[in-house]
Amino acid sequence: MPPMIRRMVKTGKLGYLWVTRILLAPNRFRVPLLTRLRLAVFGGFIGDQHVLYDLKNRSKREYLSEFDWYRSRWINEPFDAMLNNKIICNEVLQPHINVSPILFVKNKRRLVRHGAGRTRVSTADVVQGIRDHGSFFMKPLTAGKGKGVHRLDAVDGRLFVDEAEMTEAELVAFLDGQSDWFLTETVAQHPDLAAIFPRTSNTIRLITMRTGDGGAQPFFAVLRIGTADTVPVDNGSRGGLVAKIDIDSGVLSEARTLWSQGVHRVHPNSGAPIEGTVVPRWQEVVDSALRVADEFPFLQFVAWDFLVGEDDIWVIEANTSSGVNIVQLWGGQRYGQLGDFYRAHEVIK
Questions:
Q1: Which of 95, 205, 281, 343 is paired with 194 by a 20 to 30 Å CA distance?
Q2: DSSP H helical ranges for the chain
């Protein structure tokens, strides 16, 4: 594609995102319309950021906006597609680190067993696979932020979707009614993480960025923790909790959420302590992220999603960008390390 056409396409995509994801973004904090319009037009902020960042009392010049994040999603071009496609990402990472196995894929109404050639399988075969393996996560091929994710379990002959029991016929109808998905095996999380909240897999988001000397460095990390309202996912964008992880020690801060201004030192449902808890196998997570990042020196920015098991660690996803909200809950980054990185890559001025 000629460079001029490529720039026009990118500008068109950004314009579409500005309208649909910023101007028309959910307004969970009931920010007045005129304030939302002003934030969107002058800076690309969404209404929720007005409250999360306390922009009534703080300058928005300290913060990266939602639109800044969307502009950052092309930093890894032309290799961003490698991470955006979850199945390709899984295949690329598999030789380098543990990834959760993918067993079934449904695309354009064709259902296949992953890695078994072109032979099609039936939905009944998928149900039998759930019975054989015990637990899967069902994920859409394209959506992110935990949208469309379901947990499928078989326990003592009974079938469950997101903890709700279904008959086999109901599960078949459910699977048939969902388009373009894949099933990946559930990995049991470390008992220390299950103790915080056992009904979701509580995963680590660790961001690595490539510095001027070409090496990957850990920038920021949070533990994402589900709640009774977010089952089966832990995503902050779905209302889950996020606790900042100290990069050097693995110690958790208090937990916050993108859907309220609450601060949680213990889990609101389980009562288990969050603040001060040490993430198990933390140094192994950091070392693994840096090692794998350096296997792909052409990637400038990776947001890794790790699940820590009792005996090993697993990469659940690797993303070409990360929303700025989970980072800036602990302070603006426009003139911090992330802002400097964006500036170096001409995302912002």
A1: 95
A2: 3-17, 33-41, 47-52, 66-72, 80-84, 86-93, 123-133, 168-177, 191-194, 282-293, 325-328, 337-344
Domain residue ranges in the chain: 3-62, 80-98+190-344, 102-185
The pLDDT assigned to 117 comes to 74
β partners of residue 225: 241
Could you read off the pLDDT of 239-288 as tens digits, one per residue?
999 999 999 999 999 999 999 999 999 999 999 999 999 999 999 999 99
Count of beta carbons in the 10 Å neighbourhood of residue 219: 20
Any idea which fold 80-98+190-344 has?
D-amino Acid Aminotransferase; Chain A, domain 1 (3.30.470)
Diameter over CA atoms, the chain:
60
For 221-260, b/e burial (b = at least 16 CB within 10 A) is bbbbbbbeebbbbbbbbbbbbbbbbeeeebebbbbbbbbe
pLDDT > 90: what percent of the chain? 89
- Pairing mode, strands 102-107 and 110-113: antiparallel
- Residue carrying structure tokens 């003592």: 156
